Amino acid sequence: MSTDVSLKEITQHISPVSLKREFSEHHVTTPQTLHVLQWNVLAQGLSNPEGNFVRVKKETVSFDNRKWRILEQILIRQPDLFALEEADIYECFLKEHLLKHGYTCFFTPKPKSPCFVFENDSDNFKGPDGVLLCYKTQLFDEIHRYYYQQSDDDTRGKPFFAILELKHKPSSKNIIFIGTHLKSKKSFADLRITQTDAILQYLTKNYSTQKHVIIAGDFNGESDEPFYDSICKTGFSSAYRTLLNDTEPPFTTWKFRAHDEVEFEQCGCIDYIFYKPEGFVPISILKLPTKEEIGVNGLPSNEYPSDHLAIETIFNINP
């Protein structure tokens, strides 16, 4: 079944047409290219607009509307590898469809998912959210999978990263792919550096000589936070920053919330795809829309299902 036919089966459920996005540079897929997607899809269990997304109507974030848009945005550009956060609709929806479209998946649910707070919301509760890593089955052989397991005396918070070690068959290179979702809110910057250090320590212990490594995730912090500097000092670069003249995008998340009935705006770049330059060269990125293109009510919207924008990078794989 062709990609166009597959997408038509999905888009027939979607109206209005989704927000249009394009890559920054034309690229040709070769055995030495790798297409990576990173996206916090917004858990259905956390999507209730009341006090949360104050400019959003309930029907905009209904499960029947969002599930098809989320699937469309995953599949429309056919990534080779992707990391999703807050993927509470994996078991009830994405699992079946991603398998049908040729992906092998590794889902790590959070034992203490915030979605459980809304367990009585029958319209939106779909189970725990978590990190979902997926790869095109025909392109990779899986070598190993791992997720962080919290010990009883661990103070670093709930499980927050998962790893796939894969052999990329076209290039014969082993690739380490990490997906993560760090603690939210500005006040937890110190915890985010501790969480990041745990990821880097695991890589140092297990993959110290591996140069084909990618870390993708919702880091819940901007590039002026210590976690960002820690990652870069360990030999990683940000794909978007590399191709945007040494700057990160203006934002990857944009929404309007309320506190004590007073509306406030949240906007910033907190999602990243980090890579080791000795293993990869980014050649194209998925361009991000402007606020004007999104609309005055921010995200999620009638044309886009999450409060985070997906980011995608095409890499050349170094020998």
TrEMBL record:
**What are the entry keywords?**
Hydrolase
Q: Which Gene3D superfamilies match?
A: Endonuclease/exonuclease/phosphatase
One GO term (biological process): nucleobase-containing compound metabolic process
Give this protein's Gene Ontology molecular function annotations: 3'-5'-RNA exonuclease activity
The domain of life is: Eukaryota
All residue ranges annotated as the Endonuclease/exonuclease/phosphatase domain in the record: 37-308
Question: Which family does the record assign?
Answer: Belongs to the CCR4/nocturin family.
State the protein's name. Nocturnin
Q: Which organism is it from?
A: Adineta steineri
Q: What is the lineage of its organism?
A: Eukaryota, Metazoa, Spiralia, Gnathifera, Rotifera
